[in-house]
Each structure stands twice: as C-alpha cells, then as structure tokens.
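>> Question from a student workshop board

For tomorrow's exercise we were told to take the sequence and the ligand below, predict the bound structure, and bring the output to class. My setup keeps failing. Could a helper post the expected result so I can at least see what it should look like? The ligand is zinc ion.
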Amino acid sequence: MMFRKLQDRWNTQVNNKPLFRIALPSLLAALFLSGCSFLHTPVARPFVAHLAHVYMPVSKPMPLTKAQLKRIRPNEDGMVMILEYHNILPVSRSPYTSTVQQFRNDLNTLYKLNYRPVSMSDYLNNRIALPAGKSPVVLTFDDADASQYRMLPDGKTDPSCAVGVLEAFHSLHPDWALRGTFFIVPGYAFGNRDQRAEKLQSLLKMGFELGNHTITHPQLSHLSNQRVQWELAECAAQIKALAPSARVNTLALPYGVAPRDRALELHGKWGKLVYHNRIVLLAGADPAPAVIDRRFKPQEVPRVQPVPGVCGLDFWLHFFRNHPSRRYVSDGDADTTTLPRSLAHHILKARLNGSKLVLY
Ligand SMILES: [Zn+2]
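>> Workshop helper replied:
Here is what the output should look like for this input. Compare the format with yours to find the bug.
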C-alpha cells in the first residue's frame, strides 16, 4: 500500500518527463532484494575508542603509536557509505527527493559523527587521505537534475541547490572538502543546456568528479548490446566534449538495472568511441566494502539512499554507532593501510595499490 502511494506520487511527478520513465517497482525490488547483506558478514572485534580525538595529518604523518592505535582503532578494511542523492528540492516530492533542509541536516549529522567526504577516485585507488579517526563518505548525485546545480542571474551558485549547500558547508567547515561524483545525463545536464559546459567544468575545478549515467536513462536490460554501448560510449563522449578534463570512468546504472551482457558495463565501443568504467554503482542499499576487501565487486558496488527506514542513511548511521568495528576508520596516512590483524584474511593484497599494509 505504502509502495503504491509512493509509486502514484512518483508517476504523477514524472509524467511530463519522457526521459525518465520510472520503473519504481523494479528499483524498489532491487533495493530491497540487495539490501543489508552486510548485516550477516563476520565482524571484527569491537573497539571502544572515542572518535572525538583525532590527529590532523601533517605533510608526512608519523606512524601511529600503540596507544594511538588502541584509542583510534583504525580499520581501513571497514565499510564505506556511498550516498545516492537525486533531487534536492524545497519540499519533498518523491522517494528520490531530499529537501534542502534534509540535505543540510545530513551533512551536519555526518560531520558531527566524524564522517568526511572523499572522492570516488581516492576510494577506488585505496588512497583515502583523512585525519586519523575520521571515516570516509562518498557523495553521489544522479540524473544531473537542475536542483543539484543552479546559477542565479548574476552567475553565482544558487545557495539552495546541492552545490550551493555544499559550498556553504565547506566555508563553515573547511575540513569538509568539496568532493563527490555527479552522474550525468549530458543532454539534460542541470536543466539549462546553455550552461552545461560551464557547470561541468566548474564542478571539476571545485574538486568534484563526473560519472556516466547514459544518454536517455533507460533500463539497460531492455536494450540490445549495440544500444547499450551507444548509451554508455556516447554519454562519456558528450561529457568529455563539454568538460575535456573529465575522466569518465564510473557508471551509475539507471534504476540500478544492469544490461543483459554484464561485460558491457565495464568496457565497450560505439564506432570510434570507447568507454571503460572502473566500477558500476547500484541503486541501493548497503555500505560498500573497502576496495581491498575480498567482498568488493567492481560491478556491484552498493549505495545508501538518504531516505528514512530500513537500509536508509539513518539506519546505517545507527548501525555503525552500534557496530563501530564495521566502519572504515582512517589511520591518517593515505600511503599506509592499517587494520586489525584479525581482519587480515579479508583483504586481497594485490588491491593495496602500493599502500603499505600495517596490521596491529
Ligand atoms: Zn538516474
């Protein structure tokens, strides 16, 4: 019943947007079927450290002392929340809308709980550079909705769009860096076609990244292999045409629905256009494993939706409060990977990517 109501509201909202023919049932099914699987995986021994004590990194951080390790309990094999935002609007209109105030509240809550944003690249490269004791969060924004990045007539960023909220938060909290990935539907990007290049380029300058979200936002499972490759190759090419310094190597599946030939998620070509994706993001509903963890699967990287209820952001924040040993906690040095010795069998050393392994 609840789903029916949500679906009705959502369908009403999107009726005038043929580009986004929403398949809410399949998305919800994918979300709940895939959801919360990490609840059943083995845990590290719990720690009792208080995360309020952190150590700001200097140019080359000193290795943590035994006492610091005991207090901070770094775990760079812990889980990372990749948050999945869509529209950021004054009032909520669908399950895919956060209000501007909710978005601000999310940032405040994450900040107070010692989460800090990192780029998708740093996460994938196993090079998370946060002060010791902090936990990474990766922000993602799908669909390039106008509410994510809007400009005022004087050319300044609208403070009530997602980018404006992030800029204001960064001014207030300089240790909250401007990091995140916008998954772009290029023809539509942020509502105003004339401003697409300017906006995509300024996002890159600010420190954000751009990802592939296809040309027409289809359910890829309904398409031929040729059409899937056109959607992905053309999207990457159009983003690069608008913002030449973009590296488009991540894919957020529209509706979380995969193509029939899963290999085409990662590599493919259309005519002379080729694309390569390092990871494929799902639509829900768990935190993601660290990339060094054996459970990390590049084609099935889950995200957390900032929605109420089971498997939403509050659910997972509560989970990590109760199970702090499951949370990724930084050791303060991007070039070392520190974790409890009891978790060593969870990791694949080949994925350390040159980072030095420290067990304690
Ligand atoms: Zn989408």
